[in-house]
Amino acid sequence: EKGKFNPKKALELGVPKGPMFGRLTRGEDIKLADGSVVKPEQVLDETPKQSVLIYSKFTTEKDLTEFTGFPSISQFWNSEYLNDNHCELVSLLHDLPNSLINSDSFQNILSQTSSQSTSHIILH
Fold this sequence. Notes:
By secondary structure, the protein is of the alpha/beta class.
């Protein structure tokens, strides 16, 4: 998904208002009167990332070990998937008993999903 056309950026690069704006929004390079070329990526704003929040309820050790194997869940700690889909994993809400917090399986989930922009919230 491409970003939104920014007319201010286009004007700063010397693109005149009119049909050239349309060509840039359609993904076409344009050539200005002075011979310079303006590419669409020069006049598009970055696509905003979608925030992802995951709620998980664990009652057993088995729940924890199965969690990381679900493709619909595990894709969210794959940085390539997140970048390609303009997503950012911002929070994981873990609903689990105290007895599972220090388990190897839960610690593994924390290590797989931790980043500077991801917070873990533990619910009891």
